[in-house]
Amino acid sequence: MKTIRTISELRSALADAPRPIGLVPTMGYFHEGHLSLMRAARAANTTVVVSLFLNPTQFGPNEDLDAYPRDEARDLALAEAERVDIVFAPSVEEVYPAGFSTTVEVAGLTEPLDGAARPGHFKGVTTIVTKLLNMVGPDAAYFGQKDAQQALVISTLVRDLDMPVRIEVCPTVREPDGLAMSSRNAYLTEEERQRATALSRALRAAEQALERGEVDAGAIIAAARHELDEAGIEPEYLELRSAIDLTPAERVNGSTLLAVAARVGRARLIDNTMLKGRSA
Ligand code: AMP
Question: Atom 14 of ligand 1 has which residue's CA nearest to it?
């Protein structure tokens, strides 16, 4: 496995790399969620590139960029164990040199949910993902369903800008007690870690309500909300939306996304589930 720090070295290393090339973009501090994307990329590509870049432009001024957990040595060892070929770990200056002034924005899909809660976040994401796709030129890029809105936004980005890459969205990997894996789980104290399981319990409660035949948004959300209330968690959002275009859903109908964000202690956690109803 090669660790590469500059765009020019990356381009030389990839010039004669055998295709297909799979790219897994990450911000590091790997957990099983990241490793599952590397495995999916390894299974379907001859060359696997993982980018490890804590992208400052997707963090708001009062967010956790400085506190975000990092352990590059551990990440490199984990990537190597997954038979990754190249880890691209550039500096901030390499990615955003003086004079950097171009951004890429996706309208509409980036407005609700995390777009509303984190102004500017998706502009940072779509700009860095565009840059990484241009640097690597992969045949496929791998993202997690854990960040469902991000996956939709990126699929739209590559479609709208005619980028010749396939976007693969991989299932959310969870701890045995249901908590979605996240680098930010490292912020949780033991007590908070316990309370945080209410997010996935809330999603399961909604799924169970649907199984009982409930399709009304209000009732589904109330079932989920009850689990959060029990744990003393006030959601930043808890919303049912179309999984196609993120417009608000009045009822579960076809593919509907139930998405939640909440602060637990210092950690801002997100999770979601796809509720499949009967199509209209
Ligand atoms: P991050 O390093 O948090 O930016 O995540 C890098 C990629 O891993 C993104 O595509 C995430 O959606 C994905 N990811 C993060 N957590 C999980 C998880 N628990 N299961 C599956 N994918 C995940």
Answer: 144
